[in-house]
């Protein structure tokens, strides 16, 4: 049996004790704490933390969840981490978020489906239970695919609209994808949808310094929810979003970003397209459009949501520029069939 100190980002420390062969995540759950997670088997990376001291064993995870470089730096997946000594683990979430609560299904009705581009679909879910949902901007839920026992994870692309009793999502139109095929070909307005969550430690923290947001493809979704929150609460610090896609036709929700730029005094954004055939004025990858002023000599909070190659590219960029931001929150995702 080993003692593990869990240091949360709000300064709170909780101590748990692991049983022989027990993972940190399971021990935390047994102690009344939920370290943010989804898959529980080393596949999603949601439960990634940093081991500050101690020894441990960790097997059975995939590279997309934890890279070799991260493992060398003693980042851990708590769903796979079995302590071999007393340990200190830093959890990138507040203690309040990690207080265990039973996840309940939220039932709603499909209110709207929008084909935003060849690659992106937006949909809205409404209902009394939806109106009562509590989540932080940036978090996600698992949405059950109607007619199946499978679910897909999607970030909220809006906060709850209390008048419409609704929330919205952006999803990638994956060829033969279970959810995207349903939304594109089978969905009926008024059909029942079940949501479970919220999940994830990728959410907007209190803004205490400049913020740089980096979005790839449908990774724009959580930032739309974050910007809604910022619009409603305000900020005295600059917030800049760089939104990158592959082709011109993949650019979506630019009207919303323009509206946020009008409504939020310190918000600006750049949209860029990677394709060499693009006619968009800003070409290249997201990293091509990060300016020194956005990084503010490291006195910046960075939020990144995109596919694994984008996350790795940004990590490489930061290393090359020798920039260590005050905080760096990221969520990487791969399209699910």
Automatic annotation (TrEMBL):
PROSITE patterns: 2FE2S_FER_1, 2FE2S_FER_2, FAD_FR
Superkingdom in the source lineage: Bacteria
Listed GO MF terms: 2 iron, 2 sulfur cluster binding; dioxygenase activity
Signal sequence extent: none
Keywords: Dioxygenase, Oxidoreductase
Segments traversing the membrane: none
Domain (FAD-binding FR-type) ranges: 103-205
Cofactor entry: [2Fe-2S] cluster
Record protein name field: Benzoate dioxygenase, ferredoxin reductase component
């Amino acid at each position: 049996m080993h003692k593990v100190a869990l240091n949360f980002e709000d300064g709170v420390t909780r101590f748990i004790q692991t049983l022989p062969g027990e993972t940190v995540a399971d021990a935390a759950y047994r102690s009344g704490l939920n370290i943010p997670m989804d898959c529980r088997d080393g596949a999603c990376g949601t439960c990634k933390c940093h081991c500050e001291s101690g020894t441990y064993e960790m097997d059975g995870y995939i590279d997309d969840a934890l890279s070799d470089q991260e493992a060398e730096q003693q980042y851990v997946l708590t769903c796979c981490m079995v302590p071999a000594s007393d340990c200190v683990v830093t959890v990138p979430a507040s203690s309040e978020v990690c207080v265990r609560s039973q996840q309940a299904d939220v039932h709603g009705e499909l209110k709207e489906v929008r084909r935003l581009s060849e690659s992106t679909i937006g949909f809205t879910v409404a209902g009394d239970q939806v109106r009562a949902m509590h989540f932080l901007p940036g978090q996600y839920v698992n949405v059950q695919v109607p007619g199946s026992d499978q679910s897909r994870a999607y970030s909220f692309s809006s906060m709850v609209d209390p008048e419409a009793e609704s929330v919205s999502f952006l999803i990638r139109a994956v060829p033969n994808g279970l959810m995207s095929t349903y939304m594109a070909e089978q969905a009926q307005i008024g059909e029942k949808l079940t949501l479970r969550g919220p999940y994830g430690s990728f959410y907007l923290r209190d803004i205490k310094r400049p913020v740089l947001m980096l979005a790839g493809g449908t990774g724009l979704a959580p930032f739309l929810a974050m910007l809604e929150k910022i619009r409603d609460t305000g900020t005295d610090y600059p917030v800049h979003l760089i939104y990158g896609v592959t082709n011109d036709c993949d650019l979506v929700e630019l009207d919303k970003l323009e509206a946020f730029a009008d409504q939020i005094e310190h918000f600006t954004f750049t949209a860029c397209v990677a394709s060499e055939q693009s006619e968009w004025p800003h070409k290249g990858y997201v990293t091509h459009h990060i300016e020194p002023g956005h990084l503010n000599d490291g006195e910046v909070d960075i939020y990144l949501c995109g596919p694994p190659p984008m996350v790795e590219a940004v990590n490489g960029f930061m290393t090359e520029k020798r920039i260590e931001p005050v905080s760096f929150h990221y969520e990487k995702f791969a399209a699910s069939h």
